[in-house]
Amino acid sequence: MSKFSERLKLLRNEKKMTQQALADLVGVNRVTYTNWENGKREPELDKIVELATELNTTVDYLLGNSDINLLDTSKKDIQNFTKEEAKELSGALMENMNTIFEAGKKKFNMTDDEMEAMKVLVIKTISKKKQKKTRKMILLIHKTL
What we know:
Elements: H1 3-14, H2 19-26, H3 30-37, H4 45-54, H5 59-63, H6 75-79, H7 83-108, H8 112-128, H9 132-144
């Protein structure tokens, strides 16, 4: 079984979700989802992004490219980061955002200009809405840099 399959099952179980529930959230049937979890098939990038979002993890962690679930990092952990760790976290979060944007660009056949406008819109939304935890985390990371 691949790291992706193992982590998919682990994160789903941590959330106490059934395969059917997660399959419904990402818009596939249960058999398709089960094949992903059993390592028989792999989802398209847009579905990986949806899975990561529903499971509150990064794409890199879900795919096995990182052994740290950056979205599960606490404020206390971040405060104890060295400058190098803070830079790594900041870079990894930016890379994860870029992966998500690329998946959206492909899925919706967006131009580069439309993609840049979308990035600005997302940043504005994050800074204005109830994403205080994310905003505080980003500010905390930048303070340590």
